[in-house]
Amino acid sequence: xxxxxxxxxxxxxxxxxxxxxxxxxxxxxxxxxxxxLLQSGTAIGALVREAEQAESxxxxxxxxxxxxxxxxxxxxxxxxxxxxxxxxxxxxxxxKSDVVEINKILASIIISTKQRIGKx
Length: 120
Fold this sequence. Notes:
By secondary structure, this protein is mainly alpha-helical. The chain is 82% helix and 0% strand. It has 4 helices and no strands. It has helices at residues 5-27, 32-52, 57-83, 89-116. Helix 1 (5-27) runs antiparallel to helix 2 (32-52), helix 1 (5-27) packs antiparallel against helix 4 and helix 2 (32-52) runs antiparallel to helix 3 (57-83). The chain starts with a helix and ends with a helix. The model has no long low-confidence stretch (mean pLDDT 96).
């Protein structure tokens, strides 16, 4: 059985976000923005997992669309943390690259699923 790329990448991203959250709380004493990022960054993988058990193709698309919204929100929080000086450029660029890639994969899955069921 082949690897589920979005499942693997979204879980890996969630792990990085958890580590970043612990770093920001402990080292930077930042509690509000990091919590927002923790929620949105870990929700992506959770929604991907939910989509595996979707009740229909439309439910599958819906869950992945919400995951995409969470990825966009995570992108926002990362940008805000970087621009406000809580993240170094190297940290930001790595996480930004991950979230952009996740967004592209989600978009591709959503579009191809819509095409297969004739909703596009």
